[in-house]
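Researcher: Sequence recovery benchmark, item below. Answer with residues only.
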């Protein structure tokens, strides 16, 4: 699932919502800076995450589709293989696809699937993809490392805080908070000054789980942010119980971690 949606998504938004097609991205209704737009998509692209058409296909057929010429079918096959038995052939095929496919969304879906299978090859592949040329693949690679073992891959995840793209930085921030709790205060306070409103929004949200003077000061600044979605998130964060908040953030990164109050499915993030 990808945040690569712009005007094309706007054109099909009503159809997508009526069909309950979950696409990922940032907070819904606020205007976004030019570098946080969501790319182009066709109805075929948007349907790639629907694996129902291939749910009864044998693994051999899915592997054939994964190596085929149709990018949408390759994306669908990668997602479907995430739910199948992860034998060596499947894992190796997904790893090969994640690192060599010319279509960035296929690579993104493949590393997502690999993380669900787990194992050394999945980890090796995800680490390599944190340097992928496509930002959404890098962002998904961070999610994969979080799912596989965020403690073991802490250094690689932390390095993603310096990624040039907001999605990778945001995913790294959420993962480190899950790992460190209040120990992530330094990273969260730094993220409060991130150029991306999306990262600042998540910094504000997560600072609600840190009960320190520095966190309170950062939230006060964010409550006066130029972007309304950041201000509103900071105000809510100032009102939560920090201990209870931290206990909510214990599992792997998933769709629920990527939806803040006020977001919708059309404008969410990579399957993070």
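Model:
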């Amino acid at each position: 699932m990808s945040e690569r949606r712009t005007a094309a998504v706007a054109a099909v938004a009503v159809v997508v919502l009526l069909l309950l097609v979950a696409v990922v991205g940032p907070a819904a209704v606020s205007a976004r800076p030019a570098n946080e737009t969501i790319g182009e998509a066709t109805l075929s692209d948007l349907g790639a995450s629907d694996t129902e058409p291939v749910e009864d296909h044998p693994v051999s057929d899915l592997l054939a589709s994964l190596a085929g010429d149709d990018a949408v079918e390759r994306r669908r096959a990668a997602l479907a293989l995430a739910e199948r038995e992860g034998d060596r052939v499947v894992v190796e095929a997904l790893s090969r696809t994640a690192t060599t496919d010319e279509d960035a969304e296929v690579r993104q879906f493949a590393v997502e699937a690999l993380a669900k299978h787990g194992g050394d090859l999945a980890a090796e592949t995800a680490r390599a993809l944190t340097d992928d040329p496509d930002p959404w693949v890098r962002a998904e690679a961070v999610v994969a490392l979080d799912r596989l073992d965020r403690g073991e891959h802490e250094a690689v995840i932390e390095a993603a805080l310096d990624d040039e793209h907001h999605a990778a930085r945001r995913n790294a921030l959420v993962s480190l908070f899950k790992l460190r709790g209040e120990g992530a205060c330094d990273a969260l306070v730094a993220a409060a000054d991130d150029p991306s409103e999306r990262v600042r929004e998540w910094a504000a949200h997560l600072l609600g789980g840190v009960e320190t003077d520095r966190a309170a000061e950062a939230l006060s600044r964010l409550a006066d942010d130029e972007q309304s979605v950041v201000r509103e998130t900071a105000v809510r964060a100032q009102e939560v119980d920090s201990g209870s908040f931290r206990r909510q953030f214990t599992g792997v990164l998933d769709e629920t971690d990527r939806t803040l109050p006020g977001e919708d499915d059309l404008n969410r993030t990579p399957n993070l």
